[in-house]
Amino acid sequence: MFKALLVEKNDEGKTSASVQDISEDQLPEGNVTVAVEYSTVNYKDGLCIGPGGGLVRTYPHVPGIDFAGTVETSDDDRYKPGDKVVLTGWRVGENRWGGYAEKARVSADMLVPLPEGLTTRQAMAVGTAGLTAMLAVMALEDRGLKDGPLLVTGAAGGVGSVATAILANLGHEVAAVTGRPEQEDYLKSLGATQIVAREELTEVTRKPLEAELWGGCVDAVAGAMLGRVLKQMKYGASVAAIGLAGGAAIEGALITPFILRGVNLLGIDSVMQPYQNRVRAWGRIAKDLPMDKLEAMVQTATLSDLPGLGKDILKGQVKGRVVVDVT
Ligand code: NDP
After folding, report:
1. Residues whose beta carbon lies within 6 Å of some atom of ligand 1
2. Terminus of the chain with fewer CB atoms < 10 Å: N or C?
3. Ligand 1 centroid to 314 CA: how many Å?
4. pLDDT digits (tens, 9 = 90+) for 232-272
5. pLDDT grade, residue 280 (50/70/90)?
6. pLDDT digits (tens, 9 = 90+) for 44-95
7. 15 and 109 share a domain?
8. How high is the ipTM of this complex?
């Protein structure tokens, strides 16, 4: 038997999450069983710990879209007992059981070896949020960053914090958008040199273009903010769109930034990202994300803290990254 956060659904359709003992034969199909050491909390985890947000199909369910740990058994040549591994994405923790348990069983295709230079704890301090931040940075670099400050929206959140730290460490000037003025010192400690109040970018306007301000942007918010940001991009600059914390639509967006300024909107998906690019991104994280900055973003939690943290992240109240010590 081992411990897991189990989400159950009652006859009225109401879900509840609690730490329970479960047995190994309850684990899903898969050719690698991992002794999970650490997991984390992403926005999607908040949905899956709660009513599911349409992501979870069957109950009881073990959420946790990320985990890192040690291979216990493997029927796949690529992994052997004792190997350290990381899992993010592939809808693990959504349509199959995930990392909020002392053991997880998955397909070897879903794993990556623990990147050299990182511990399992650090890998989960990064998690899907950090991997996505790095994928966004890589997409901006591949497309060609322009001069001038780079904007990060939802900056005090998970993706935003890691994106801020990476871009600043690479020598870029970073402007961080936040709705939490009390996080100004935190964002500056990650390397932001300019703080932009969320309210400055939430009014929907019908202006076709605004002053050219930003040489690139990592956007975790979408909604009215992305509509405004697109109009403020410098000629030929790119926005890496990673999230929808402020709404699924791009409000007030017009075609003008694309056809008059050659602005690019780059979509970033971490879930189905091919293996080679995941490995490349993890390698860049180990190299370009300063570990002291990562540590400054982290709060530690246990399985029993997760129901509360799930609610907090849905309200945008979690600062930086959470590491869940599963054991
Ligand atoms: P967090 O909750 O940690 O961060 C989101 C941040 O957005 C908040 O901290 C807050 O930052 C800001 N925010 C929240 N609500 C609003 C609002 N109504 N208007 C404006 N800003 C708001 O989440 P994550 O960083 O983990 O994820 C961010 C987004 O990215 C989510 O939508 C998530 O689903 C998505 N995502 C997408 C991935 C992909 O593969 N594309 C992978 C991972 C996440 P502040 O307080 O600083 O304003």
Report:
1. 42-44, 128-129, 132, 154-160, 178-180, 198, 220-221, 225, 242-246, 268-271, 313, 316, 318
2. N
3. 9
4. 999 999 999 999 999 999 999 999 999 999 999 999 999 99
5. very high
6. 999 999 987 789 999 999 999 999 999 999 999 999 999 999 999 999 999 9
7. yes
8. 0.99
- Give me the DSSP letters along 34-67: EEEEEEE--HHHHHHHTT-TT---SSSB---SEE
CA of 74 to the centre of ligand 1 (A): 35
Q: pTM score, two decimals? A: 0.96
Q: Give the residue whose CA is nearest to atom 11 of ligand 1.
A: 154
- CA–CA distances in Å: residue 2 to residues 47, 66, 305: 24, 18, 17
Residue listed under structure tokens 């908040």: 46
Q: Is 54 buried (19+), middle (13-18) or exposed (0-12) by CB count in 10 A?
A: exposed
pLDDT tens figures, 154-197: 999 999 999 999 999 999 999 999 999 999 999 999 999 999 99
The verdict on 137 and 260 lying in the same domain is yes
Ligand 1 centroid – CA 72 distance (Å)? 34
| Dist. CA 310 → ligand 1 center (Å) | 13
Is residue 196 located within the same domain as residue 237?
yes
Ligand 1 nearest-atom number relative to CA 318: 3
Q: How far apart are CA 101 and CA 182, in angstroms?
A: 34
Domain that holds residue 175: 127-267
